[in-house]
């Protein structure tokens, strides 16, 4: 093995362990050996993306593509950065289409097309995404991940019936596939199969908990402070509903709650509700850190996401709050 390959292998090994600073040191040594190596620039782009430096990551990916116009991996990596966090949907689609010009393997084609579907859905083009879904290769695919992604894509483009067999196929290949169980639960909900949905959600929760928690964006203490700050910025009519409520911060909803049909990925749950003939009131507010972090763009957006999630839950449980006119102080603010 030559020196460049040794540094590259070392860097990717460190990436797999989550040691991005160590990986970057190895990548920089690789760059000293060959400044025009597309593999090195792709590696550096990947590391920068993992560290949250999207623009710099994109520069490295673009340099890798300049050095090798057929470098599909760099094109798709660049597309992923365009989708998240940059939300440059058209940029992502353009890079994916360039990659598809070079891809011949059906499984790799499906992988790239699924990424294009994500970009189209992000852009709000559900009809365009459905066209791509219907053009996907039929397989069979060895990967549980691709089977799941096709099922999810079909569900998100409105093909509930077509989603179910793909999701079940993913679960057959990987019985603890939390995402596949979760989307199967959503499919069964759409079919009004409450018992089946609850079981699927329980399987999803169990698989996720057994799989170990991802590293949190912030500590639990910091998250609790963000919750209190978020409550302080709620609209007056929303804040009134939870005034004096016990606020409980947890990780994910408990199994007993999920068994009753609650979505295991709900970020906020109201409990101990007032009587129907009383003003809207909740005595307990559960805020689930893992589920909030799942949908927040980053640590700086946590407070905004918590406030939005509390507001949505309050308005869902008490529709009359959603329709209430703004108070004079809210109008002035």
CATH class of the largest domain: Mainly Alpha
CATH architecture of the largest domain: Alpha Horseshoe
Do you know the CATH topology of the largest domain?
Serine Threonine Protein Phosphatase 5, Tetratricopeptide repeat
Q: How many domains, as an integer? A: 3
User: What's the gyration radius in Å?
Assistant: 23 Å
Q: Would you tell me the structural class of the helices and strands?
A: mainly alpha
InterPro entries: TPR-like_helical_dom_sf, TPR_2, TPR_rpt, Zincin_1_sf
Organism: Sandaracinus amylolyticus
Keywords: Membrane, Repeat, TPR repeat, Transmembrane, Transmembrane helix
TPR repeats: 38-71
Describe the structure.
The chain has helices at residues 3-16, 20-33, 38-50, 54-67, 72-83, 89-100, 106-123, 126-134, 144-156, 160-173, 178-190, 194-210, 220-232, 236-242, 255-259, 289-295, 302-317, 319-322, 328-332, and strands at 246-250, 268-273, 282-288. By secondary structure, the chain is mainly alpha-helical. Helix 5 runs parallel beside helix 7. It has three domains: 1-124, Alpha Horseshoe (Serine Threonine Protein Phosphatase 5, Tetratricopeptide repeat); 140-212, Tetratricopeptide repeat domain (Serine Threonine Protein Phosphatase 5, Tetratricopeptide repeat); 220-332, Zincin-like (2-Layer Sandwich), CATH 3.30.2010. This is 4Fe-4S ferredoxin, iron-sulfur binding protein. It is a single-pass membrane protein.
